[in-house]
# Entry
Amino acid sequence: MGGVNSTADIPTLVLLPGLDGTGLLFAPLLRHLPADLPVKVIAYPADPEMGYDELTAYASSQLPDGPLILLGESFSGPIAILLARKFHYRVEGLILAASFITAPMPSFFRFSLALPIAVRLGRSMAHFIVRGFFSAPELTAQNRKDIRTIPTALIISRAREALAVDRTEDFRRITCPVLVLYARYDYLVLPFHVKKIRAIRPDAAIFGFTAPHMLLQTRPAEVAAKIAEFIRR
# Structure
C-alpha cells in the first residue's frame, strides 16, 4: 500500500483491541497498513476487575505524544469515544470498527449476563460469547490460538461491561471526523447501531464490508485501505 502523506505531520494510529484485549488480533491489519504510518497497539491488562473506567484510564496513560487517530475495535469503541473527548485537542479522527456507542445486544441478553447463573455456567457462557465475538472461518491459525488463551473470567467480565455501556452523550460531544467500519454479517453489533451513529453524526464516513464481526481479521486489506484514505483526507 502507498504512503499516507509525504509532507504533513502524520498522526499516530492508536489501535484499541476488542474483547480479547491483547492486541494480538491486529496482526492481519498491521500487515496491510501503510509503512509510513506510525501505529501504537494498546494491550489491556488481563484483569477481570478492570471495567470500562479502569481500562479507559489505562489506555489514556499509554497514548503516545502528538496528534492521534483512535481506532476502537468492537469492545473498545466506548473507550475510544471517551479518549477522543478527553484528548479532543489532539485527536484528529475517531474510527469505530465493528463497534458501538451503546450496548450491542438486546436487553434480554444484558439481563441474562447479569444473573448469578452466568457465573455458574462458566465455560459454557464463555464459549457462547467467544463464538459470537470471535467465530469466523477466515481467521488464521494464529488468531485462533490467541483466542483460546483468553481466560473465561475475563471474557464474562468484559461482556458484562459491553452489555451495560452507553456512550451516546459522550459521542454527541465529539467534534473530530468519524469513520465507521461495519460488517454486514455481524450478528452482535446490529444495523441499528450504524443508524444511531449516522443520526448523531450525519457527516461520518460509513463503510460496510461483506464480513462477520471479526472484520479487521477477515478483511484486513480492504479495511487498511479505508483507514489510509481517512487519514489522508
